[in-house]
Amino acid sequence: MKNETIIERLGILADAAKYDASCASSGTSKKDSRLGKGIGSTEGMGICHAYAPDGRCISLLKVLLTNHCIFDCHYCVNRKSSNVRRARFTPQEVADLTINFYRRNYIEGLFLSSGIFKSSNHTMEQMVEVARILRDDYDFRGYIHLKTIPEADPELVYRAGLYADRVSINVELPTDSGLTRLAPDKNAMQIEGAMGGVKSAITQSKDEIKRFRHAPKFAPAGQSTQMIVGADAATDSDIVGKASRLYDSFKLRRVYYSAFSPIPDASAVLPLKRPPLVREHRLYQSDWLMRFYGYKPNEVMQATEADGNLPLDIDPKLAWALKFREFFPVDVNRASKERLLRVPGLGVKAVERIITARKHRSLTLDDIAKLTVSIAKVRPFLIASNWRPTTLTDRADLRTLLAPKSEQLELFGA
Predict the structure, then answer these.
(1) Which chain regions cross the lipid bilayer (predicted)?
(2) What is the DSSP-derived secondary structure letter of residue 62?
(3) Sign of the Cα pseudo-torsion (115, 57, 259, 224, in order)
(4) Does 34 map to a domain?
(5) Is the pLDDT confidence value at 227 over 70?
(6) Which one of 22, 157, 398, 400 has the lowest number of neighbouring Cβ atoms within 10 Å?
């Protein structure tokens, strides 16, 4: 490692960080450098984005401090027993990389995680030092997200939250039994205890800011977590239930899902192939239903198939509607917002526009067609001034009619 350049180490440690999905920068407090004070900004002009190899738009330097690790989690490519190239940065090197990339307009902030080297406390101290250098030495006011370590001393986690916009602690797997089996060095109670500590610190910080204008802010963008999907036998019902409990118990901003990806020299207890990526997508859709559409966790679970997993060919909202057809059709000119949000194909903005427009005139099916991508998906579930679905809602083959048609790709297609 001593002979490797900064760029070579960056290639190793940025690639090792790609498995962590919980790096969104939404929800942070506004810190602006456009008046000439400090460096970096979480909003405004001068912020550009980079694109990851898989097409996702990102604007953060996403990197590990090191991929050395004393833990041996079966699903982790950086586990102790894994045969991968190892590398390590010093806190000063990560801080300098962040500043240099920001000045070149490549990024708007930093997402920093790490393998556990020497000890949890030592690793956490090094990560906090990165954030301290950026904030105190460089007066950096851009976005910082630190992946904290639940085994570390709570005081170190607290210090991380004083420098970072967001902190996160991964629960890793949906069930305690799965965690025990695949991550023997981790403890579910310890992880949730650390999440509870972060929640308390965020609540306390908000209270202090109300009373004292210059009280320090603690993780103003909140905390998030991530679950690996498909590494164990947990069903989508298990995952939805776990996510709901985490939201309620710890007031999380987001729960992220990461489809298990096979790794080199994998343990025999892991699946031989990854789950369909669309499964991860369906879980994000179910998460959206609970957060923005008023669905309760048990209602999302009702949309699952007999094996406890969400259908892959249709989205969870449509799956629920097909199971509870007695709820439909919904009259777009009279129904409440809550009922309209249950109509497959109608998003939050479309429903708000419907409610605004119907104050002035009665809406037709053509009016609704202008607000949705697929009127065919909407027609069976609503009533308009010139439309009633009659027997369409109850057709036995309705799922077949509404499921997206699979396309055969051409090898030499244009």
Answers:
(1) none
(2) E
(3) positive
(4) yes
(5) yes
(6) 400
- DSSP string across 98-139: HHHHHHTTS-SEEEEE----S-HHHHHHHHHHHHHIIIIIS-
Same domain, 58 and 136: yes
Enumerate residues 6+ apart whose C-beta is below 8 A from 217.
29, 162, 205, 209
- Is the residue at 284 inside a domain? no
∠ CA 240-242-248, rounded to 5°: 100
Q: Are both 100 and 176 inside the same structural domain? A: yes
Handedness of CA 105, 107, 110, 115 (dihedral sign): negative
What angle, rounded to 10 degrees, do the helices at 277-292 and 236-250 form? 40
Among 258, 275, 292, give the residue marking a domain's end.
Answer: 275
Tell me how far apart the alpha carbons of residues 343 and 332 are, in angstroms, rounded to a whole number. Answer: 10
In a shared domain, residues 64 and 198: yes
pLDDT digits (tens, 9 = 90+) for 377-411: 999 999 999 999 999 999 999 999 999 876 554 54
Read off the DSSP letter of residue 332. Answer: T
Sign of the alpha-carbon dihedral angle for 375, 378, 383, 388? positive
Please check whether residues 261 and 378 belong to one and the same domain.
Answer: no
pLDDT for residue 198 is more than 80: yes
End-to-end CA distance of the chain: 46
Residue 71 resides in a domain: yes
Helix axis angle, 188-211 to 236-250, nearest 10°: 40
Residue 22 pLDDT level (bands cut at 50, 70, 90): low
Q: Are 268 and 137 contained in the same domain?
A: yes
Q: What angle do CA 317, 326, 289 make, to 5 degrees?
A: 20
How many structural domains comprise the chain? 2
pLDDT digits (tens, 9 = 90+) for 135-157: 999 999 988 999 999 999 999 99
Distance CA 162, CA 134 (A): 13
Q: What are the tens digits of pLDDT across the range 81-124?
A: 888 899 999 999 999 999 998 998 888 889 999 999 999 999 99
How far, in Å, CA of 349 to CA of 340, rounded? 11
* Identity at 251, one-letter amino acid code: K
CA-to-CA separations, 168 to 20, 102, 295, 338, in angstroms, rounded = 11, 23, 25, 32
* Domain-located, residue 95: yes
Contact 222, 251 (CB under 8 A): yes
CATH number at residue 237: 3.20.20.70
Domain residues for 180? Answer: 6-275
Predicted TM-score (pTM) above 0.70: yes
